Amino acid sequence: MGLLNVFRExxxxxxxxxVYLWAYGLSVAWVFILAAAFQTLFQEKRLRQHxxxxxxxQRIARTIALGLFGSPRGKIIVKNISWLISGTDALWLLPLxxxxxxxxxxxxxxxxxxxxxxxxxxxxxxxxxFFLLATCPALFxxxxxxxxxxxxxxxxxxxxxxxxxxxxxxxxxxxEVATVGPWLMWGSFLGGLIAVWGLSQWWFDLSxxxxxKTWLSQFLNALIGLGLAIATFSAPVANLFVATYLWKTGxxxxxxxxxxxxxFLSPLLxxxxxxxxxxKGTFYLLCILAAGVIxxxxxxxxxxxxxxxxxxxxxxxxxxx
Length: 321
Description:
The protein is mostly helical. The chain has helices at 3-23, 28-41, 44-52, 56-68, 74-86, 94-103, 106-116, 118-144, 162-198, 215-231, 238-248, 253-261, 270-307. It is built from 13 helices and no strands. It starts with a helix and ends in a 14-residue tail after the last helix.
């Protein structure tokens, strides 16, 4: 198959994926509208202010809200990561924001179910819980060692009147479409490439590496998923489509989870890590995050196997081509 044909079929697959979401009854436009509405009502500057001056349990809740109701736009993610590392005295809050801000935004709640099934929404959530259990204690110890920089805390405006709310909503919607939209399109194209290659003769079943349905196979697939996330410069929202087609073309459940959560180790985030923690602190942070991703992948796999839960398939690649 020629390179041009591969690109053509990848674009076709990505287009059909978006058409499927529309036909499913979920217009992508509504996702943008809901995301903009959340950002209007839950302003990030006000949430950051409350995070800095709260009791521990309130800080946890407000850090999650900062990510959950925020935007997965690159600049916003980077700014909030920088602030959490440099502007607070709690480095252990960082994983809470990463999970909520990268993998639990409105895009994942509304798009992951139609693409793969409701069980994958739960897999994403459970994976986040395992990731937090593995990383928060380690980052607390890293925080106690003093591996962080100093920063300032921003203060935000009040909600204001209805006219101000409508204006902020309009601006938030425009920014969301202009910045997240291209990543969504890029993710659908990259996912289309995975689908096309997955139907090629040279493609092999990743879940068979290390044996059939063995723990070694699951561990190796977790490493593969994490490696692919780093190699493809995984980004929020875009990783949703790539992970979907990695699963449909044979990667094991652990690899699927590892790719979704490998976004935290994307080279796109390395500069802000280095700027806030230095090279040595960034190395420690990346090692902890990588261990957390593997722990989340294996934890989800173990939980699903022990509970005997079944996983259904939806919209395999050969139904799109």
